[in-house]
Structure formats: structure tokens, C-alpha cells
Amino acid sequence: MHYLDHAATTPVPRAVANAMVEVLINGFGNPSAQYPLGREAHALVERCRGVLAEALDCEASRFVFTSCGSESDNWALRLAAHQGRHVGRHIITTAVEHSAVLEPCRLLEQEGYEVTYLKPDRNGNITAGQVAQALREDTVLVSMMLVNNETGCVFPVEEVAALLRARSSRALLHTDAVQGFLKLPFTAASLGADLISVSGHKLGAPKGVGGLYLGERVRAPRPLIAGGGQENGLRSGTEATAQIAGFAKAVELRRENAAQKLAHMAAIKDYALTRLLAIEGVSRVGNGTAPHILAVSLAGYPSANVVSELGAQGICISAGSACHRGKLSHVYAAMGLPKRTAAGVLRISFAPETERADIDALADALEAHRASRFPML
Asked: Which residues are catalytic?
């Protein structure tokens, strides 16, 4: 199998699985229990929190475990809206955010909030200048993803943070860093966001675990779940200790020789771009600079058909969410791509273990079957 859909999810390394099994079998205590097995489980959770905090270079108390990136995004938006409720009801985001940001924004609109959706240029980019133009006295939240999950475009979160500071804005800055965490070098301080959402299964951890960084400007954060007081009273419910252990182990593995891993992914992306653009009819979509995501289009050929055909050959890529219930991706629509181009988008995404042979298999399959098997629009 040639797996090239790491932006969707990632395989779990054996070391991560082993760490989880150890907790499931031997460290199964409830972290809230007062006997030794429970105290050991609590200590495990705190050690793992320290691993995540070290990766973000923040205080451990500022990192809260969640079930996924979507939960972290939803909580962050609600939290910011609640904190700024006496300041105003204006939110700024981009038209190309993940649905875990866009859908909560639409719900907030139904509650009387006004949301400004910034549109990208034809290459998929958003600028800090657009945020500057949209920023108002009553803006309570700016939510901008770090890396777009469909184009790989890196957004200027750090510049926006500097802008908010320069304007003495009371708006909180949230970034969905699910596709950027350990794919781009940053710390909580260097990024400057008040709220940072991350997810485990995008970097070798199991599904079902994520986290949210709460910066110093987040005052008296509103709990996501009230109840037993876990996660310092912010997210009650018995901790998912096995998933948390897997998350921490995956982060440790990704941070080993991190610079070399990022360089390898960037080189693989360059090789893929060279091979794929040599195929008749293939064009690049956007100019994303993230090292692990590449979007191209085989214009005129429905991407869902291409993905299915390649999948039957053991080559796993994504349609880039180009078609959802018969509708084009909101990302490509916002970019203003021609319909034939947007309908043919293929997203290829890489990991440190991706090899040139994986790219060769993809390119060879596209070249061999482009005209003979894929029905044109």
C-alpha cells in the first residue's frame, strides 16, 4: 500500500500502540481515585501534559486535553465569545477554515454575532492586511488556521498576533493548528495566539485525543463540561488515559530529529510536484508552503472517481474535500477556481516515512490510467 493521505489521519507507530496497551492493561486506574493505582494514573496524565507543554514551550497548566481538534475549535470559539460578550459581537475568520470553525461561527451568527469571512486570493492565501481592514472596536475574536488542510497554505497567524497587540485590541486570537503542529516550527509564544487547537491523530497518535492551549489573556475560561472537576475544572469527565499516553508518545517520536523530518517531507513534496506536473493535464492548486500537503488538479476528471480507482490499486490519496454531497469544496469555491479545475482536485499529503517510491506509484498510476479509465466531465 502507498499511503499518501496523512493530512486526513496517520498510522499509529508500534511504540505508540505499545504505550497505550501498557496503560490499558496495567495502568487502568481512574486518575481521580486516591489509592496508588489512581494516583499513578493521575501522574501519568500530568507527565503527558508536560510532554505536550514542552512541545508548545508553554506552562503545563495552560494545556487542556480534549477529544479532538474539532472539540478544541468549538470550545475556543465559544470561550472567546463568552469572554468578550461585554466588548462586542464581531468575529473575524476566513472563508477557508475547517468546518469545525465555520459551523460554530454560523451558530454564533444565529445568536446575534456578526462574522466577517475573509476570502483568499487565487493561490489560497490570506494576509494580515485583510484582518487589519476588518478589525473593529467590537471585535471579540479572530480565528485563523495555521495551515489550510486542503491547500497547505500557511496563514500569517504571527503577524495577526502582532497586529492585535499594536492595536491594543481586546479580541482574542485563536488558531486551528491541527495541520501545523509539529509540521511547522513554532511555539505558543512565537505564534502569539491566545488559543491554539491541536489534534493527535494527525501525527501518529490515536484518534480521540486532542488539546487546547489557553494563553494568559484567556481570563477565567468557561468550562466546556461541568461535573467532576477534571482538567482543572475546565473539562470534566474521566480522562482518556490510554489515548493521552499515545498522544504524548507520538509527540515524543515526532520531535526526535524534527528538523530532518521536516526537510524530508519538503523534499518529498518537491519530488511529487515535479513528477505530477509532468503529467498531461495536471496543474497545481494554490501555492501552499507547508511541507506535508500538496494540492493538484486533473482538470475535467472527477476527483472522486480518480480517488476510488487509485484506492483499488492500493494508493491512498484524498479528493481534497472537492465534492461533498454534490457541492464543490468551500475552499476552492472561495479561491475562485474554475469548476472543472475544482472538481478535479487531488490532495496528496506526506509524513516522515513517505518515500519516493510512493510518489512514483501515484504518478505512474495517473499516467497509465488518465485517459483510459477516468471518465471526463
From this structure: 323
Residues 80-83: contacts with CB under 8 Å, at least 24 apart: 80/140, 80/141, 80/143, 80/171, 80/172, 80/174, 80/194, 80/195, 81/108, 81/113, 81/140, 81/141, 82/222, 83/140, 83/172, 83/218, 83/219, 83/220, 83/221, 83/222
Q: Considering only CA atoms, which of 299, 293, 316, 312 is closest in space to residue 362?
A: 316
Determine contact, residues 225/242, Cβ cutoff 8 Å. Answer: no
Say whether domain 14-255 belongs to CATH 3.40.830.10: no
Residue 91 predicted with pLDDT over 50: yes
Question: Residue type for 200, please?
Answer: G
80: closest CA among 202, 169, 209? 169
Q: pLDDT tens for residues 329-354?
A: 999 999 999 989 999 999 999 999 99
β-pair partners for 302: none
**Between the CA of residue 40 and those of 30, 37, 187, what are the distances in Å?**
9, 5, 29
Residue 323 binned pLDDT confidence (cut-offs 50, 70, 90)? very low
Place of cell 513554532: 186
Q: What letter would DSSP give residue 12? A: P
DSSP 240: -
Predicted local distance difference test score (pLDDT) of residue 31: 96
Asked if residues 128 and 156 have their Cβ atoms less than 8 Å apart, the reply is yes
pLDDT beyond 90 at 371: no
> CA nearest 72: which of 108, 105, 100, 106?
100
Nearest residue to 290 via CA among 185, 204, 202, 158? 185
| Per-domain boundaries in the chain | 14-255, 257-369
Q: Is the pTM of this model over 0.85?
A: yes
> pLDDT tier at 57 (50, 70, 90 boundaries)?
very high
Q: What is the pLDDT of residues 8-31, one digit of tens each?
A: 999 999 999 999 999 999 999 999
Q: Which class in CATH covers the domain with range 257-369?
A: alpha beta
